[in-house]
Amino acid sequence: MGVGKMYPIAQSVSKMQEPTWPIFPYGGDYNPDQWPREVWADDLRLMKKANVTIATLPVFGWVAVNPEEDVYTFEWLDDILGRLESEGIRWCLATATGSVPAWMTHKYSDVLATDSNGVRRKHGGRHTFCPHSPNFRRLSVNLARKMAERYGHREGLLVWHISNEYGPYCYCDLCAEAFRTWLKARYGSLEELNRCWYTAFWSHTYTDWEQVEPPYTNGEQCCQALKIDYSRFMSESVLECYKLEKEVLREITPEIPITTNMMWDYRPYDYHRWAKEVDFVSWDAYPQYTTDPADTAYMHTQMRGLKEGQPFWLMEQSPSQTNWTAYSRLKPPGLLRSISFQAVAHGADAVMYFQWRRGRGGFEKLHGAFVEHGGDENNRVFEETAKIGSELAQIGTRLQGARVPAKVAILMDWENWWGISVSSGPSRDIDYPGVIKRFYKAFHNLGIQVEIVNPSADLSRFEWVVAPMLMMLRENDAESVKSFVANGGTLLTTAYSAFTDETDLVFLNGAPGPWAEMLGIWVEETDAIPPDDLNGMIWKGSKPMDATILAERIHLRGARALGHYTKNFFAGEPAATVNEFGQGKAYYLATFPKAEDLTGIIADLAKELGIASPLAGGVRPPAGVEVTERVKADGERHLYLVHHGKTPASVPLPEGSHRDLLSGEVIEGNLPMAQYDVRILVKEG
Ligand code: GLA
Ligand code: ZN
Fold it and tell me: What local confidence, expressed as pLDDT, does residue 9 receive?
C-alpha cells in the first residue's frame, strides 16, 4: 500500500492582516489545459474586452503539471501565466490539488476515500481523497511547494486558491485510527468519553479504545454524540490538508493572501473553524431560477460573518445557466448584473465566475461561461459580462473594503446544526438553517442589516443578538451571551435553545439550562407541530398567527408573557416572554411564527430599539427591493438598492440628494425602480 510514516499535521500558521486589493477582481475559472494553444490568444483578446482583471487557474490542472510522481510539466503553465501577466490580468493561482490524478490513486490506494459502509471508492470524479492518506498529504503539499517556488515571486500572483470546494469525507481504517487518537486528546480517558457519550444507554459502554469506530451506516448510528464528534473530526481532518498546503505557501510567499472557496449551505464542515485559517473568505454562489433572492442574501451574509464582517470574494457564479439541476435555465437579461451587485451590496470585494469558456467535452460542457461554444464577443452573455466588467472597472475599487454597519447579530453554529440533525426527536421536520433563514428574512424584509456570526464571536459591537434554536450551547457561549444582556444588550432566543451541552448531554436543570435565570422561564414540555395541524399564537394584541415546528409549554419564573397559544390543550399559556436581566432584556419565543408574522414581531422589537432601514423614515423597503449599506473606513457610506421583483417600485430615499455611482445621476425623493435595477448611492455634499 505504500503508506509509510504518518504525514505531519499542520501547526497553526502565522496570521496575515486583513488583505487589501490593488484591483477589483473580475474574471474567474480559466481552464487553458483543456484547450490547444491556438485558442489562448483569442482568450486573452476576449478577456481584455470583457474587462477581466483576474483568472483562476489551474484549478483542476494536477495531471497537466504533474503527470507522474516527481515529473513536472510546467512549461505550458509558464506560457499562459506569462501571457496573462503581460496583459495585466492577475492570477488567482490554484495549487491544482482540486482533483486527484489517476496515476496517484492507482499507485497509492490509501489516497481514495472509503464510504460510510466501509467500502473504498474507485477512481473518478473529484474530491475523492482520504484526508488522512499520507500519500495524498505528501503529494499535494509537494505540488503546492513547486507552485510557490516557481510562481510565488511573480507580479501576476494576487492570491492563492487552495484546492477547490473541499468536500471529502472518509471512513477508512486510517481515519478510524486518527479518530481514536483525536478522541483520546479530547476526552483524556475512556471513562470520560463514556460519560460524555452517555454510553450506558443500550449497553454501548466501551471497554477498550479499539472498540470505538466511526459511525458506519451499517454500524453505530444511535450514539448521537459519536456522530457529532465524527463531524467535528472530519471537518478538522480535511482542514488539516488545507493547512498543510497553506503552511508551505505562507513560508515561501508570506505576503500573498490565501483562501479556499466555500459552498452554499454546506453542512459537513464547520466553516467558522475554517474561516480562521483563510486570509479572506471566498465562496461560490449558484442561485437557481427558483431561489428566493433573500436566500442568496442570507448566504452572502453568512459568508461575510465567517470572518465577523470582513469583506469576502464571490469566487464563482455562473454567467448564465448551470448544468447540474433538473432545468438548466438561462438567466434573463439583467439578472446577472443585479445578482453581481447584490453580492457586492452584502460585502463582496470581487465578482468572479465559473467559467471562462464552455468546455468542448466533459461533464461541464453545457455549463454557462463568458464565451459560448464556437463563440466570440458577439453573444448576449458575453456582452452582459463585459458591461458588468466595465462598471466594476470604473467604481469597483471605491466600493472595496467597506463594512456593513450591522447592529444586529444572528447566531449560527455548525456544531449545533450537526446536533439538531442527528437528534432522534422532537421532530423530523426541523431544518436548522431554515429556521435561521426565517429570522434573517424578517430583518431582510425590513431592510435591517444583520451579521450572522458564531456564538463565540465578539458580541460587543452589536445592540441586539438573535439566537434561533441554539439547542447545543457551549459553556463559554452561554456566559458570553449572558454578559452581553447583563451589559445592556437585547437578546431574542427561541424554543429548543440551551437544551444540551456540547457533548449532547441535556442540562440537568432542564431547558433553558444556563440561560434559565436570564430568560426567567422553565420549559416543561415540547410539542412537535405537524404541518397539517398547526398551533397558533397571539403576540401582544395581534391577530392570531400560525405557530409552527415546535411549541413549548413554558412556565414564567420572573419573565413576563408577551403572547400566548391559541390552540391545543395548552391554549392560553405563554408562547412569548421578556425578562429584564442586568441592564438588558431577554426575549423568548416558545414557538416559530411564519416569516411574515415573524417580520411583524421583529419590526415591533426593532422599533423599541430604534433600529430601522436606512430609507426615509426607516420604512420597510417596497416588495422585491433589497436595501443594504456599506461604510468605508473614511466614513463614506454606500447605499445599495437592488430590485429583484417584477412589480415596479418607488423607493423613498433618505433625505438629501444622492449620486448614483453607476449612472452618475443625482437623485432625491422617491426613486422609481424596475426589475433588476441597481443603484449605489452616495450622499452629495
Ligand atoms: C463548483 C465548482 C466548479 C464547477 C461549478 C459548476 O462551484 O467549484 O469547479 O464545477 O461548481 O457549477
Ligand atoms: Zn480515510
Answer: 47
3-state secondary structure of 500: strand
Are residues 10 and 246 in contact, defined by beta-carbon separation less than 8 angstroms?
yes
**pLDDT of the residue at 13:** 54
CATH code assigned to 408-609: 3.40.50.880
pLDDT in tens, 198-237: 999 999 999 999 999 999 999 999 999 999 999 999 999 9
How many DSSP H helices and E strands does the chain contain?
17, 27
Report angle CA 527, 528, 533 to the nearest 5 degrees.
Answer: 105
Query: What is the model's pLDDT at position 4?
Result: 37
The confidence score (pLDDT) of residue 676 equals: 98
CA-based nearest residue to 484, from 510, 457, 523: 457
CATH architecture observed for domain 616-683: Sandwich (2.60)
Classify the phi-psi angles of 90: left when phi > 0, otherwise alpha if psi is within -120 to 50, otherwise beta. Answer: beta
- Distance CA(13)–CA(239), nearest Å, equals 13
Nearest residue by C-alpha to atom 3 in ligand 1: 354
- Give residue 685's pLDDT: 77
Point out the residues of the chain with pLDDT beneath 50: 1-12
pLDDT of residue 398: 98
Burial environment of residue 217 by CB neighbours within 10 A (0 to 12, 13 to 18, 19 or more) = exposed
Ligand 2 midpoint to CA 375 (Å): 43
- Architecture per CATH, domain 34-184+237-399, reads as Alpha-Beta Barrel (3.20)
d(Cα 21, Cα 312) in Å, to the nearest integer? 12
Closest to 466 measured CA to CA, from 32, 475, 449: 449
* Phi-psi group of 70: left, alpha or beta (phi > 0 → left; psi -120 to 50 → alpha; rest → beta): left
Vertex 378: Cα angle to 331 and 26 (nearest 5): 60
Angstrom distance (rounded) from CA 559 to CA 581: 10
Given ligand 1 and candidates 164, 266, 288, which is best to mutate, with the most ligand atoms within 8 Å of its CB? 164
For residues 154 and 90, what is the distance between their CA atoms, to the nearest angstrom?
Answer: 10
Pocket perturbation via mutation, ligand 1, pick of 354, 358, 366 by most ligand atoms within 8 A of CB = 354
CA distances to 30, 433, 514 from 421, in Å: 37, 11, 22
Beta-carbon neighbours within 5 Å of ion ligand 2: 130, 132, 170, 172, 174-175
Q: Where are the domains of the chain?
A: 34-184+237-399, 408-609, 616-683
Comparing CA positions, the residue from 153, 156, 142 lying closest to residue 7 is: 142
- Of all ligands present, the nearest one to the C-alpha of 132 is 2
